[in-house]
């Protein structure tokens, strides 16, 4: 084995384990969604966004549409700006890795890793933040497009196709926003990794527990949708 890999084998294995836990969690969500399409709030709100688009475009609620899209754009813009500022800050820290390692030893009294691995940790932080920036930027781009699409007049023949396309683009923007938030969440284990490989695994487990609590749709909402669908079938 290469000497560098042997020296940092524990850190690298913990990093792989952290990424594996993160991937297994999302695989678990996909499996649950196959049995229960409304298990996550993301799936539930996708349906809500489709209904919102239909309500706005058929009811001529132009002001409501613009205000809602403006709020979503402002949120994505703020988070994108924060991500790029943090990335630049981490890059400036990486340029002073040697001095930073000495300070880290004094402040934490923890046997931190060598300069090469410490720089690698900062590099992963930068890559993660740039991924968040890209996701939020794509979300802003799509929200700007939707401001024009949702108010575009269409004839009755093309209205259905137009609403489907607008709803598709709105959900695409929301998914990019969701990916950006996921990148923000994963930044926390990477930060704790600076304190040691064990902290990386503990922070990953804590992050997954928090995401599991946030992602699940409340049971009342999951049960309300099937009852509503059954009522509509009985009525018909």
What does this entry show, briefly?
By secondary structure, the protein is an all-alpha fold. The chain has helices spanning about 5, 10-35, 40-60, 60-95, 95-110, 115-150, 155-195, 195-215, 220-235.
Question: How would you sum up this structure, described in words?
Answer:
The protein is mostly helical and 236 residues long. The protein has one domain. Helices cover 87% and strands 0% of the residues. It is built from nine helices and no strands. Helix 7 packs antiparallel against helix 8. It is flat and about 65 Å long. The C terminus is likely disordered.
Profile the largest sheet. Answer: none
Distance between the termini: 69 Å
Number of helices: 9
What's the total number of strands?
Answer: 0
Question: Which parts are unreliable, with pLDDT below 50 for 5 consecutive residues or more?
Answer: 226-236
* Fraction in beta strands: under 5%
SSE pattern, N- to C-terminal: HHHHHHHHH
Overall average pLDDT: 82
| Estimated structural class | mainly alpha
Count the domains: 1
Percent of residues in helices comes to over 70%
Shape descriptor: flat
Radius of gyration: 23 Å
Transmembrane segments: 72-94, 122-143, 192-214
InterPro entries: DUF599
Protein name: DUF599 domain-containing protein
Keywords: Membrane, Transmembrane, Transmembrane helix
